[in-house]
Amino acid sequence: MAMATVRTRIAPSPTGIPHIGNTRTALFSYLLAKKNSGQFILRIEDTDQKRLVPESLEAIYEIHDFLKLIPDEDPRKGGPSGPYIQTQRLDLYQKYAQELLEKGVAYQKEGAIRIKMPKQGYTSWNDLVQGKISIPNQEVDDKVLLKSNGIPTYHLAVVVDDHLMNISHIIRGVEWISSTPVHLHLYQALGWQVPIIAHVPLLLGPDKTKLSKRHGAKSVLEYRDDGYLPEAINNFLFYLGNSYQDNSAILTLKQMAQIFDETKLQKQNAIFDIEKLQFFNKQWIKRLTPAELLPRLKPFLPSPWVVKDSLLLQIIPLTQERLTTLKDFPTLTNYFFSSPDYTSISFTSKQHLIDARAVLSQTEWNKSAIESSLQQLTDTHQYHRGQFFMDLRLAITGQKITPPLTESMLILGQQQILSRLDTVIKLI
Ligand code: GLU
Protein backbone atom coordinates (compact mmCIF):
# COMPACT_ATOMS: atom_id res chain seq x y z
CA MET A 1 0.00 0.00 0.00
CA ALA A 2 1.36 3.40 -0.89
CA MET A 3 2.13 5.64 2.08
CA ALA A 4 -0.49 8.34 2.49
CA THR A 5 0.80 11.75 1.54
CA VAL A 6 2.26 13.69 4.41
CA ARG A 7 0.57 17.08 4.68
CA THR A 8 1.48 19.39 7.52
CA ARG A 9 0.36 22.87 8.36
CA ILE A 10 1.14 25.93 10.37
CA ALA A 11 -2.01 27.76 11.34
CA PRO A 12 -1.15 31.11 12.86
CA SER A 13 -3.74 33.54 14.13
CA PRO A 14 -2.97 37.06 12.90
CA THR A 15 -3.26 38.43 16.41
CA GLY A 16 0.33 39.61 16.68
CA ILE A 17 3.76 38.93 15.24
CA PRO A 18 4.49 35.21 15.67
CA HIS A 19 6.71 34.34 18.60
CA ILE A 20 9.97 32.50 17.92
CA GLY A 21 8.36 29.36 19.40
CA ASN A 22 5.62 29.47 16.74
CA THR A 23 8.29 29.77 14.09
CA ARG A 24 10.03 26.70 15.45
CA THR A 25 6.74 24.81 15.06
CA ALA A 26 6.53 26.08 11.49
CA LEU A 27 10.06 24.81 10.81
CA PHE A 28 9.31 21.35 12.21
CA SER A 29 6.08 21.14 10.20
CA TYR A 30 7.91 22.26 7.06
CA LEU A 31 10.70 19.72 7.55
CA LEU A 32 8.33 16.85 8.22
CA ALA A 33 6.51 17.56 4.96
CA LYS A 34 9.72 17.97 2.94
CA LYS A 35 11.33 14.86 4.37
CA ASN A 36 8.37 12.86 3.09
CA SER A 37 8.02 14.73 -0.21
CA GLY A 38 4.70 15.98 1.10
CA GLN A 39 3.15 19.42 1.34
CA PHE A 40 3.42 22.17 3.88
CA ILE A 41 0.37 24.41 4.20
CA LEU A 42 0.02 27.87 5.69
CA ARG A 43 -3.49 28.61 6.87
CA ILE A 44 -4.60 31.84 8.51
CA GLU A 45 -6.84 31.35 11.52
CA ASP A 46 -8.49 34.73 11.76
CA THR A 47 -11.78 33.82 13.41
CA ASP A 48 -11.04 35.81 16.54
CA GLN A 49 -11.82 39.09 14.85
CA LYS A 50 -11.62 41.13 18.03
CA ARG A 51 -7.96 40.29 18.54
CA LEU A 52 -6.81 40.87 14.95
CA VAL A 53 -3.66 42.93 14.54
CA PRO A 54 -3.68 44.13 10.93
CA GLU A 55 0.08 44.12 10.33
CA SER A 56 0.54 40.59 11.61
CA LEU A 57 -0.60 38.91 8.38
CA GLU A 58 2.18 40.63 6.47
CA ALA A 59 4.65 39.72 9.23
CA ILE A 60 3.68 36.05 8.97
CA TYR A 61 4.40 36.10 5.23
CA GLU A 62 7.64 37.97 5.78
CA ILE A 63 8.87 35.39 8.28
CA HIS A 64 8.16 32.53 5.89
CA ASP A 65 9.80 34.34 2.97
CA PHE A 66 12.85 35.30 5.02
CA LEU A 67 13.45 31.80 6.41
CA LYS A 68 12.50 30.20 3.08
CA LEU A 69 9.86 28.08 4.78
CA ILE A 70 7.84 28.37 1.62
CA PRO A 71 4.38 26.82 1.85
CA ASP A 72 3.12 24.66 -0.99
CA GLU A 73 -0.34 26.07 -0.39
CA ASP A 74 -1.24 29.35 1.26
CA PRO A 75 -3.55 32.35 0.84
CA ARG A 76 -1.16 34.04 -1.58
CA LYS A 77 -0.62 31.19 -4.01
CA GLY A 78 -3.84 29.28 -3.36
CA GLY A 79 -4.07 25.53 -3.81
CA PRO A 80 -6.52 22.65 -4.09
CA SER A 81 -7.95 23.03 -0.57
CA GLY A 82 -8.42 26.79 -0.55
CA PRO A 83 -9.34 29.34 0.51
CA TYR A 84 -6.66 29.31 3.20
CA ILE A 85 -8.10 32.12 5.30
CA GLN A 86 -10.74 30.95 7.72
CA THR A 87 -13.06 33.96 7.45
CA GLN A 88 -13.38 33.07 3.75
CA ARG A 89 -14.70 29.61 4.63
CA LEU A 90 -17.58 30.49 6.94
CA ASP A 91 -20.22 28.53 5.00
CA LEU A 92 -18.24 25.33 5.57
CA TYR A 93 -18.14 25.73 9.33
CA GLN A 94 -21.82 26.64 9.41
CA LYS A 95 -22.66 23.51 7.48
CA TYR A 96 -20.75 21.25 9.87
CA ALA A 97 -22.18 23.01 12.93
CA GLN A 98 -25.66 22.14 11.59
CA GLU A 99 -24.58 18.57 11.07
CA LEU A 100 -23.32 18.37 14.66
CA LEU A 101 -26.61 19.79 15.93
CA GLU A 102 -28.54 17.22 13.93
CA LYS A 103 -26.37 14.43 15.28
CA GLY A 104 -27.00 15.59 18.82
CA VAL A 105 -23.32 16.15 19.63
CA ALA A 106 -23.82 19.90 19.76
CA TYR A 107 -26.57 22.09 21.16
CA GLN A 108 -27.72 25.66 20.90
CA LYS A 109 -27.61 27.91 23.94
CA GLU A 110 -27.89 31.71 24.22
CA GLY A 111 -27.44 32.02 20.48
CA ALA A 112 -24.25 29.93 20.26
CA ILE A 113 -23.72 26.34 19.20
CA ARG A 114 -21.72 24.37 21.75
CA ILE A 115 -20.24 20.92 21.82
CA LYS A 116 -21.90 18.46 24.16
CA MET A 117 -18.94 16.88 25.93
CA PRO A 118 -19.44 13.60 27.76
CA LYS A 119 -19.40 14.18 31.51
CA GLN A 120 -17.72 10.94 32.45
CA GLY A 121 -14.68 9.00 31.34
CA TYR A 122 -11.52 10.17 29.70
CA THR A 123 -10.47 11.32 26.30
CA SER A 124 -7.12 9.80 25.37
CA TRP A 125 -4.76 9.86 22.47
CA ASN A 126 -1.23 8.85 21.64
CA ASP A 127 0.64 12.06 21.24
CA LEU A 128 3.69 11.74 19.05
CA VAL A 129 5.79 13.78 21.47
CA GLN A 130 4.05 13.44 24.82
CA GLY A 131 3.09 9.78 24.61
CA LYS A 132 -0.31 8.71 25.89
CA ILE A 133 -2.39 11.59 27.21
CA SER A 134 -5.70 11.09 29.03
CA ILE A 135 -7.84 14.00 30.08
CA PRO A 136 -10.90 13.54 32.32
CA ASN A 137 -13.94 14.67 30.34
CA GLN A 138 -15.36 16.47 33.35
CA GLU A 139 -12.44 18.92 33.04
CA VAL A 140 -13.50 19.90 29.53
CA ASP A 141 -16.32 22.41 29.19
CA ASP A 142 -18.92 22.52 26.48
CA LYS A 143 -16.93 24.85 24.30
CA VAL A 144 -18.60 27.20 21.84
CA LEU A 145 -18.19 25.96 18.26
CA LEU A 146 -20.10 28.60 16.34
CA LYS A 147 -21.05 32.02 17.63
CA SER A 148 -24.46 33.60 17.00
CA ASN A 149 -22.91 35.83 14.33
CA GLY A 150 -22.04 32.75 12.29
CA ILE A 151 -18.31 32.90 13.04
CA PRO A 152 -16.78 29.68 14.30
CA THR A 153 -14.35 29.42 17.18
CA TYR A 154 -10.89 27.94 16.77
CA HIS A 155 -12.13 24.50 17.89
CA LEU A 156 -14.59 23.97 15.08
CA ALA A 157 -12.56 25.72 12.40
CA VAL A 158 -9.33 23.88 13.13
CA VAL A 159 -10.97 20.46 12.95
CA VAL A 160 -12.96 21.19 9.78
CA ASP A 161 -9.91 22.64 8.05
CA ASP A 162 -7.40 20.01 9.11
CA HIS A 163 -9.82 17.43 7.76
CA LEU A 164 -10.76 19.17 4.50
CA MET A 165 -7.14 20.07 3.85
CA ASN A 166 -6.12 16.43 4.35
CA ILE A 167 -3.65 17.24 7.09
CA SER A 168 -1.81 14.09 8.14
CA HIS A 169 0.25 15.51 11.03
CA ILE A 170 -0.55 18.35 13.40
CA ILE A 171 2.47 19.82 15.16
CA ARG A 172 1.63 22.54 17.65
CA GLY A 173 2.58 23.87 21.06
CA VAL A 174 1.68 22.16 24.35
CA GLU A 175 -0.68 25.02 25.16
CA TRP A 176 -3.22 23.31 22.88
CA ILE A 177 -3.27 19.99 24.75
CA SER A 178 -6.30 20.94 26.81
CA SER A 179 -8.28 21.74 23.64
CA THR A 180 -7.53 18.41 21.99
CA PRO A 181 -10.36 16.44 23.68
CA VAL A 182 -12.87 18.82 22.09
CA HIS A 183 -11.29 18.29 18.70
CA LEU A 184 -11.20 14.52 19.08
CA HIS A 185 -14.90 14.44 19.87
CA LEU A 186 -15.60 16.46 16.75
CA TYR A 187 -13.57 14.09 14.59
CA GLN A 188 -15.42 11.16 16.05
CA ALA A 189 -18.84 12.73 15.63
CA LEU A 190 -18.16 13.63 12.02
CA GLY A 191 -16.66 10.23 11.27
CA TRP A 192 -13.31 11.65 10.26
CA GLN A 193 -9.86 10.16 10.63
CA VAL A 194 -7.76 11.88 13.29
CA PRO A 195 -4.37 13.14 12.10
CA ILE A 196 -1.20 12.28 14.01
CA ILE A 197 -0.88 14.88 16.75
CA ALA A 198 2.40 16.16 18.21
CA HIS A 199 2.43 18.74 20.99
CA VAL A 200 5.88 20.25 21.19
CA PRO A 201 7.15 21.68 24.47
CA LEU A 202 7.53 25.27 25.44
CA LEU A 203 10.64 27.30 24.90
CA LEU A 204 12.13 28.39 28.20
CA GLY A 205 14.56 31.13 28.99
CA PRO A 206 17.90 30.26 30.63
CA ASP A 207 16.22 30.70 34.05
CA LYS A 208 13.75 27.93 33.11
CA THR A 209 10.71 30.15 33.02
CA LYS A 210 8.53 30.56 29.94
CA LEU A 211 10.49 32.36 27.27
CA SER A 212 9.58 36.01 27.01
CA LYS A 213 10.89 39.39 25.90
CA ARG A 214 12.58 39.64 29.26
CA HIS A 215 14.98 36.88 28.15
CA GLY A 216 15.79 38.74 25.00
CA ALA A 217 13.35 36.61 23.01
CA LYS A 218 12.16 38.34 19.90
CA SER A 219 10.27 37.54 16.77
CA VAL A 220 12.22 36.28 13.80
CA LEU A 221 11.81 39.67 12.13
CA GLU A 222 13.59 41.34 15.03
CA TYR A 223 16.44 38.82 14.81
CA ARG A 224 16.63 39.59 11.10
CA ASP A 225 16.91 43.29 11.92
CA ASP A 226 19.60 42.51 14.49
CA GLY A 227 21.74 40.95 11.76
CA TYR A 228 21.02 37.25 12.04
CA LEU A 229 21.01 35.18 8.86
CA PRO A 230 17.94 33.08 8.07
CA GLU A 231 20.20 30.04 7.67
CA ALA A 232 21.48 30.52 11.22
CA ILE A 233 18.00 31.01 12.68
CA ASN A 234 16.73 27.83 11.04
CA ASN A 235 19.81 25.93 12.16
CA PHE A 236 19.34 27.16 15.73
CA LEU A 237 15.61 26.40 15.85
CA PHE A 238 16.20 22.94 14.41
CA TYR A 239 18.08 21.83 17.51
CA LEU A 240 15.66 23.41 19.99
CA GLY A 241 13.77 20.50 21.44
CA ASN A 242 15.26 17.88 19.17
CA SER A 243 17.82 15.31 20.22
CA TYR A 244 20.46 14.42 17.69
CA GLN A 245 23.93 13.15 18.48
CA ASP A 246 25.54 16.26 17.14
CA ASN A 247 23.53 19.27 18.13
CA SER A 248 25.72 21.88 16.54
CA ALA A 249 26.20 20.67 12.97
CA ILE A 250 25.84 23.36 10.36
CA LEU A 251 22.91 22.33 8.20
CA THR A 252 20.98 23.75 5.29
CA LEU A 253 17.20 23.40 5.20
CA LYS A 254 17.64 20.58 2.69
CA GLN A 255 20.01 18.72 4.98
CA MET A 256 17.70 19.30 7.94
CA ALA A 257 14.82 17.83 5.97
CA GLN A 258 16.91 14.74 5.26
CA ILE A 259 17.72 14.06 8.89
CA PHE A 260 14.61 15.44 10.58
CA ASP A 261 13.03 12.73 12.67
CA GLU A 262 9.72 13.53 14.31
CA THR A 263 10.26 10.69 16.77
CA LYS A 264 13.25 12.58 18.16
CA LEU A 265 11.20 15.57 19.20
CA GLN A 266 11.75 15.87 22.91
CA LYS A 267 9.22 16.00 25.65
CA GLN A 268 11.32 18.19 27.92
CA ASN A 269 11.05 21.93 27.54
CA ALA A 270 13.78 23.40 25.38
CA ILE A 271 16.02 26.17 26.64
CA PHE A 272 16.55 29.15 24.41
CA ASP A 273 20.21 30.10 24.50
CA ILE A 274 21.11 33.24 22.58
CA GLU A 275 24.79 32.25 22.58
CA LYS A 276 23.93 29.21 20.53
CA LEU A 277 22.15 31.41 18.02
CA GLN A 278 25.24 33.62 17.91
CA PHE A 279 27.39 30.54 17.36
CA PHE A 280 25.32 29.47 14.35
CA ASN A 281 25.29 32.98 12.99
CA LYS A 282 29.08 33.25 13.15
CA GLN A 283 29.43 29.89 11.42
CA TRP A 284 26.99 30.80 8.67
CA ILE A 285 28.60 34.19 8.08
CA LYS A 286 31.97 32.46 7.62
CA ARG A 287 30.50 30.01 5.13
CA LEU A 288 29.08 32.50 2.69
CA THR A 289 31.29 33.80 -0.09
CA PRO A 290 31.95 37.57 -0.07
CA ALA A 291 29.64 37.90 -3.06
CA GLU A 292 26.88 36.10 -1.15
CA LEU A 293 27.46 38.16 1.95
CA LEU A 294 27.44 41.51 0.14
CA PRO A 295 23.67 41.78 -0.45
CA ARG A 296 22.98 40.48 3.06
CA LEU A 297 25.13 43.26 4.54
CA LYS A 298 23.64 46.10 2.55
CA PRO A 299 20.60 46.73 4.76
CA PHE A 300 23.01 47.34 7.65
CA LEU A 301 25.25 49.82 5.88
CA PRO A 302 25.08 53.61 5.93
CA SER A 303 23.65 54.66 2.59
CA PRO A 304 26.85 56.15 1.08
CA TRP A 305 28.59 52.77 1.45
CA VAL A 306 25.91 50.76 -0.26
CA VAL A 307 27.11 51.55 -3.77
CA LYS A 308 30.76 50.75 -3.06
CA ASP A 309 30.60 47.12 -4.11
CA SER A 310 34.22 46.68 -5.10
CA LEU A 311 35.53 48.19 -1.89
CA LEU A 312 33.08 46.13 0.16
CA LEU A 313 34.15 42.96 -1.62
CA GLN A 314 37.75 43.66 -0.63
CA ILE A 315 36.86 44.35 2.99
CA ILE A 316 34.48 41.45 3.57
CA PRO A 317 37.15 38.69 3.58
CA LEU A 318 39.11 40.63 6.23
CA THR A 319 36.13 40.80 8.56
CA GLN A 320 34.07 37.68 7.96
CA GLU A 321 35.75 35.73 10.76
CA ARG A 322 35.03 38.48 13.23
CA LEU A 323 31.36 39.04 12.70
CA THR A 324 28.83 37.68 15.13
CA THR A 325 25.99 39.51 13.43
CA LEU A 326 25.80 41.49 10.21
CA LYS A 327 25.34 44.57 12.35
CA ASP A 328 28.95 44.28 13.56
CA PHE A 329 30.25 45.02 10.09
CA PRO A 330 29.84 48.82 9.92
CA THR A 331 31.40 49.41 13.35
CA LEU A 332 34.34 47.20 12.52
CA THR A 333 34.99 48.72 9.12
CA ASN A 334 33.97 52.37 9.31
CA TYR A 335 37.60 53.48 8.94
CA PHE A 336 37.57 52.30 5.34
CA PHE A 337 34.89 54.85 4.56
CA SER A 338 35.91 57.86 6.59
CA SER A 339 38.90 59.12 8.53
CA PRO A 340 38.86 58.28 12.21
CA ASP A 341 37.91 60.81 14.84
CA TYR A 342 41.04 61.18 16.97
CA THR A 343 39.64 63.44 19.70
CA SER A 344 39.39 60.83 22.42
CA ILE A 345 42.34 58.65 21.41
CA SER A 346 45.63 58.69 23.29
CA PHE A 347 48.86 57.59 21.68
CA THR A 348 52.01 56.28 23.41
CA SER A 349 54.48 58.20 21.29
CA LYS A 350 54.30 60.79 18.55
CA GLN A 351 57.76 59.67 17.40
CA HIS A 352 56.34 56.26 16.48
CA LEU A 353 54.06 57.96 13.99
CA ILE A 354 56.69 60.31 12.60
CA ASP A 355 59.01 57.36 11.94
CA ALA A 356 56.24 55.22 10.53
CA ARG A 357 55.26 58.00 8.16
CA ALA A 358 58.81 58.36 6.93
CA VAL A 359 59.15 54.64 6.24
CA LEU A 360 55.71 54.23 4.70
CA SER A 361 56.29 57.08 2.29
CA GLN A 362 59.33 55.26 0.93
CA THR A 363 58.21 51.66 0.81
CA GLU A 364 56.77 49.77 -2.09
CA TRP A 365 53.05 49.31 -1.53
CA ASN A 366 52.71 45.57 -1.07
CA LYS A 367 52.26 43.35 1.97
CA SER A 368 55.78 42.02 2.34
CA ALA A 369 57.49 45.36 1.64
CA ILE A 370 55.29 47.18 4.16
CA GLU A 371 55.77 44.55 6.82
CA SER A 372 59.52 44.24 6.45
CA SER A 373 60.12 47.98 6.44
CA LEU A 374 58.09 48.42 9.62
CA GLN A 375 59.89 45.48 11.18
CA GLN A 376 63.22 47.04 10.34
CA LEU A 377 62.07 50.33 11.83
CA THR A 378 61.04 48.83 15.18
CA ASP A 379 64.29 46.82 15.29
CA THR A 380 66.48 49.84 14.56
CA HIS A 381 64.85 52.02 17.19
CA GLN A 382 64.24 49.13 19.55
CA TYR A 383 60.63 50.15 19.79
CA HIS A 384 58.23 48.13 21.88
CA ARG A 385 56.42 46.35 19.06
CA GLY A 386 53.06 46.19 20.79
CA GLN A 387 53.04 49.90 21.54
CA PHE A 388 54.37 50.89 18.12
CA PHE A 389 51.77 48.90 16.24
CA MET A 390 48.98 50.04 18.52
CA ASP A 391 49.85 53.66 17.79
CA LEU A 392 49.95 52.91 14.08
CA ARG A 393 46.67 50.99 14.21
CA LEU A 394 44.97 53.80 16.12
CA ALA A 395 46.27 56.39 13.66
CA ILE A 396 44.99 54.45 10.68
CA THR A 397 41.75 53.06 12.05
CA GLY A 398 40.88 54.94 15.23
CA GLN A 399 40.19 51.59 16.91
CA LYS A 400 42.16 49.18 19.08
CA ILE A 401 40.68 46.05 17.58
CA THR A 402 40.38 45.90 13.83
CA PRO A 403 40.71 43.59 10.87
CA PRO A 404 44.37 42.90 9.87
CA LEU A 405 46.34 46.12 9.65
CA THR A 406 48.57 45.56 6.62
CA GLU A 407 45.65 44.35 4.53
CA SER A 408 43.68 47.38 5.65
CA MET A 409 46.55 49.67 4.60
CA LEU A 410 46.69 48.01 1.19
CA ILE A 411 43.01 48.60 0.64
CA LEU A 412 43.13 52.20 1.88
CA GLY A 413 46.16 52.99 -0.32
CA GLN A 414 49.42 54.80 0.37
CA GLN A 415 48.03 58.32 -0.14
CA GLN A 416 45.30 57.85 2.40
CA ILE A 417 47.62 56.25 4.98
CA LEU A 418 50.14 59.09 4.72
CA SER A 419 47.44 61.68 4.99
CA ARG A 420 45.97 60.07 8.13
CA LEU A 421 49.42 59.96 9.69
CA ASP A 422 49.95 63.63 8.82
CA THR A 423 46.68 64.55 10.47
CA VAL A 424 47.53 62.70 13.69
CA ILE A 425 51.09 64.05 13.82
CA LYS A 426 49.76 67.59 13.56
CA LEU A 427 47.14 66.95 16.20
CA ILE A 428 49.22 65.44 19.02
N1 GLU B 1 -4.38 29.30 15.46
C1 GLU B 1 -3.68 28.54 16.43
C2 GLU B 1 -2.43 29.34 16.83
O1 GLU B 1 -2.44 30.49 16.64
C3 GLU B 1 -3.29 27.20 15.84
C4 GLU B 1 -3.14 26.11 16.85
C5 GLU B 1 -2.98 24.79 16.12
O2 GLU B 1 -1.95 24.61 15.51
O3 GLU B 1 -3.91 24.00 16.13
O4 GLU B 1 -1.46 28.86 17.32
TrEMBL record:
It is found in: Cytoplasm. Keywords: Aminoacyl-tRNA synthetase, ATP-binding, Cytoplasm, Ligase, Nucleotide-binding, Protein biosynthesis. It catalyses: tRNA(Glu) + L-glutamate + ATP = L-glutamyl-tRNA(Glu) + AMP + diphosphate. The gene is gltX. GO terms for molecular function: ATP binding; glutamate-tRNA ligase activity; tRNA binding; zinc ion binding. PROSITE patterns: AA_TRNA_LIGASE_I (PS00178). One of its GO terms (biological process) is glutamyl-tRNA aminoacylation. GO terms for cellular component: cytosol. This is Glutamate--tRNA ligase. Monomer. A motif ('HIGH' region) lies at residues 12-22. A motif ('KMSKS' region) lies at residues 210-214. Residues 292-425 form the Aminoacyl-tRNA synthetase class I anticodon-binding domain. ATP binds at residue 213. Its EC number is 6.1.1.17. Residues 6-109, 110-278 form the Glutamyl/glutaminyl-tRNA synthetase class Ib catalytic domain. Belongs to the class-I aminoacyl-tRNA synthetase family. Glutamate--tRNA ligase type 1 subfamily. Catalyzes the attachment of glutamate to tRNA(Glu) in a two-step reaction: glutamate is first activated by ATP to form Glu-AMP and then transferred to the acceptor end of tRNA(Glu).
